[in-house]
Design a protein that fits this description.
Layout lengths: L1 E11 L2 E12 L3 E5 L6 H8 L7 E6 L2 E2 L8 E4 L11 H11 L4 H14 L15 H13 L5 E5 L7 H16 L3 E5 L3 H7 L2 E6 L2 E7 H8 L2 E7 L12 E7 L2 E6 L2 H11 L5 E7 L3 H9 L5
Parallel strand pairs: 3-8, 3-9, 6-7, 7-8
Antiparallel strand pairs: 1-2, 1-4, 4-5, 9-10, 11-13, 11-14, 12-13
Helix pairs in contact: 2-3
């Protein structure tokens, strides 16, 4: 079973928010949908969950068109969090679980399991407004997964969380993946995408500019990053042909080069000049690729 988005376009009164986007996500996979603000990510998510209808193209699950009647298959954590502040956590989760077709006898054990998992069992009878933003986010995540969805959409799931809670949420996402959930998520933190996603799509002004497996995307980018820390002046390296980016840091320089041959030239040039504390050749980061393809930093 897989989620297919085929040639999907969404227009709003002459404005194209999503323009001919295609990708598919098999079961047991985490897919990253990336883009700057206004790139079309949230519009795509809303079409998947049935809140918006595509102007053109088709969205299918297991070769069947997805519609609002399939809402029980989907869990959604929106970027704009939307819990009822004056409701108790248990009442909130019972209400949302019932909306997904669950019985109270099914909801309560799942609710307790997840509250324990996130180390907040004492919040069951607290009002949502009494919780910190981070803990409210945990409750909203629980609401998205309570009914054991086949497809889980996470729009900026880690924003506003401290590092401990980020790791807790990541572990939960990976566990759901192992259990067979198909997961689509967006994040402003490229390191989270690199850690979790096998495949990704970068949108720019509604159109895909990068699409494929993370390994292939990095390989096809071609450029490499070189770090040199040394006890002599390295400023001359910026003039070596094939160095496309030069950044001076306290201990030395960070370079981006066109290919591995250029890195060999750099290595040969510094080899006899003095003590080199560090020479490191790395694949480009996803952040490097994003900046080049979209023209601005994601953050």
């Amino acid at each position: 079973m897989s989620l297919h988005i085929e040639n999907v376009t969404k227009n709003f009164a002459g404005f194209t928010a999503v323009d001919n986007v295609s990708f598919h996500i098999p079961e047991h996979q985490i897919f990253g949908l990336l883009g700057a603000n206004g790139a079309g990510k949230t519009t795509t998510f809303r079409m998947v969950i049935g809140l918006l209808t595509p102007t053109a193209g088709e969205i299918t699950w297991n070769d069947q068109p997805l519609s609002q009647k399939d809402s029980h298959l989907i869990g959604y954590l929106p970027e704009e969090r939307g819990l009822y502040p004056s409701l108790k956590v248990s009442d909130q989760l019972l209400y949302l679980g019932r909306l997904k077709g669950m019985k109270k006898s099914e909801i309560v054990p799942q609710m307790k399991k997840w509250l324990e998992r996130f180390k907040v069992p004492e919040y069951e009878n607290k009002k949502v407004e009494e919780l910190s933003k981070g803990n409210q986010q945990k409750i909203q995540f629980i609401a998205a997964v309570l009914h054991k969805p086949k497809i889980l959409i996470l729009d900026e799931p880690f924003s506003g969380l401290d590092p401990v809670n980020v790791e807790m949420l990541k572990e939960a996402v990976l566990e759901l993946k192992k259990e067979g959930t198909t997961i689509v998520f967006s994040s402003h933190r490229m390191e989270h995408v690199e850690e979790l996603c096998e495949h990704l799509c970068i949108l720019h002004k509604g159109s895909p500019v990068v699409h494929g497996s993370l390994k292939e995307v990095k390989r096809s980018f071609g450029k490499k990053n070189v770090t040199v820390y040394a006890d002599f002046d390295l400023s001359y390296l910026k003039d070596i042909p094939g160095v496309v980016r030069y950044k001076q840091v306290t201990e030395g320089v960070h370079l981006q080069v066109e290919n591995e041959d250029v890195s060999q030239k750099i290595f040969d040039s510094i080899n006899s000049k003095g003590f080199v504390r560090k020479f490191e050749l790395e694949e480009p980061s996803l952040n490097d690729i994003f900046i080049e393809k979209v023209g601005a930093s994601y953050e």
